[in-house]
Design a protein that fits this description.
single chain, about 700 residues, alpha+beta, Hypothetical protein af1432, Beta Polymerase, domain 2, Ubiquitin-like (UB roll), 5 domains, TGS_RelA/SpoT, Guanosine-3',5'-bis(Diphosphate) 3'-pyrophosphohydrolase, hydrolase, ACT-like_dom_sf, guanosine-3',5'-bis(diphosphate) 3'-diphosphatase activity
Amino acid sequence: MPEAESLFFEVSKYFKPEELALLKGSYFFSQGAHSGQFRITGEPYISHPVAVAHILSELHLDVITLAAALLHDVVEDTTISKEEISERFGLSVAELVDGVSKLKKIEFQTKADAQAENFRKMLLAMAQDVRVILIKLADRLHNMRTLEVLRPDKQRRIARETLEIYAPIAHRLGLNSIYQELLELGFRYFYPNRYKVLVKATKAARGNRREIVGKILDAIKNRLKDAGIDAIVTGREKHLYSIYKKMSEKHLSFSEVLDIYGFRVLVKDIASCYLALGALHSLYKPIPGKFKDYIAIPKLNGYQSLHNTLLGPYGLPIEIQIRTYEMHRIAEMGVASHWLYKSNGAEVNELHLKTNQWLKSLLETLSDSSDSIEFLEHLKVDLFPGEVYVFTPQGKILELPRGSTAVDFAYAIHTDVGNCCVAAKINGENIPLRTELMNGDRVEIITAPYANPNPAWLSYVATARARSSIRYFLRNIQYEESVKLGERLLNQALLSFGVNPDAITDIQWERLVKDSGAKSKKALLADITLGKQLSAVIAKRLVVPGETISEVTNASNPVVILGTEGMTVQFARCCYPLPGDTIVGLIKKDQGLVIHVHDCPVVMRIQKKSENVLDVAWGKEIARTFEVGINMTAVNQRGVLARIAAEIARADSNIDDVTMESDKDYTTMQFILQARNRQHLAQIMRGLRHIDEVVKLGRAKN
């Protein structure tokens, strides 16, 4: 076919004869495997893998990658196996094909699960060999080019996936030409009406501004020539999607987006970049705050360039990019520009190291995520552009997504630093951990050896690494706590049947684990805590059949609450139980054991015989504070709240929350305080009653 002949001709310029023979062999093998198959467009199916290989040949990738591109759908869409490809074309080609192939033999509950697992597998393979994602990006690009034959709903689904996942990955790998085309095609099919309107508007604007743009281009060339700078200057129209994003984010109309044209200056070396910048500043005035030096501080994907916006004639903003020829090659081809696959290994350079670091962080996120949907969520967070550059105390530069906090910075240094951080200093000043970082901030993290991640961090961290590390730690801690509490609940149930927990043998446990289908004894105990299994049922099944069980009331063996159980034991916010209160436990599925006051309406609504209600009791020594609610009515006078707060502090308590409603004469207040037990609460309330303006006071239980 003509497309294949064109491919062979292009690669023959840099392939050895034996490499070209391997490529032709993979083409004829793929053609035979896909014989009789057609795309929805009506073309023979082989046209698709040939197009994918053609896209990759423009990046001058190696023969292994191009052969895998020609074979990338063979395992998925034909009866050919990975082993057959390995035997015929080598293990490297087979591994790449397998990494790109979808998972079609596994059943998933939802389409989202299947798609997320496909991404998970693909990115795991990519972390082993980045060529997997290069093939997948070329595959997606060709599919996007032929998307018009699909139904509108399918077009939108695929376009959204492209905008959210594939285009950002291409950007992260520095594949600018693929990135920009994926964005434009994604925009075209996800927002078809907006795309058509913008196409029409830019055509009209192009005609109106053609003369002005020509004059600016000539002026730039002449100024650089006068300064003795040898440069290639090109004008370029901004991409539609970037115009749309600017309109959307800044709430502008199209007429207000003036800088739809940009200019690129290519010079021979770095010194010439800065000389060109100075020359252009003498031509047009720079707009303050718009200068970005990506040469001194390159982007993580290796991109380097000087960016500035100048005020041109007629008040027209002009976006300027200045870079060397080598920087331009990397900007267009990214990681593919240096990923040289040879028998002696890949060339090692700074871009490789940065890419490897990102792939390594992907693997860490992958191992920390409990499921594919969660991993995909982390990936999306990590991929979207927009960054801040901050410094460590040693002067090392870290690039983080915009919106990152001191906690994100801590996890970017090392997971252990993040897990143990307790405070931070920005530019020498103590700041809260949730503070957003700004460009140029110098950040110092203060750690403590026994500190642990706080679940509240999840509400403000911005990086995938921080989010997945926090969740991984909390999930593991909660699991261990669940196992311990589950064992206590099971022991209570066994004692209520008159069975000594120590008498249960390993054989009994092995039989129960096998019969219940649980992964392990620990998993079964954790399920008891989380309400997925009932302790009484597990206790009965543990006992050897035929053994006499004497029923004993649960009340004789209550579960003792120590206050140190962690997240597996929660204290209900409807009644705020305190040590000294008579309490009961309510097992809630996926939440664990929730402690209520015995006369709480929530518990009263549940049948007394429910196996989800457990007898619990406070331990003898509990060294912690608990939340408790109090309601108060006070005379509406100046300074009353200050006196109430002072009295609460004098009683060695703390105010967690307060809400107030006032009328002309009185103020009704609801406080959430910290108290050690009922006696401590009584002491707090005695002090509050001595305030003359307090006319009504009581504990809030419901």
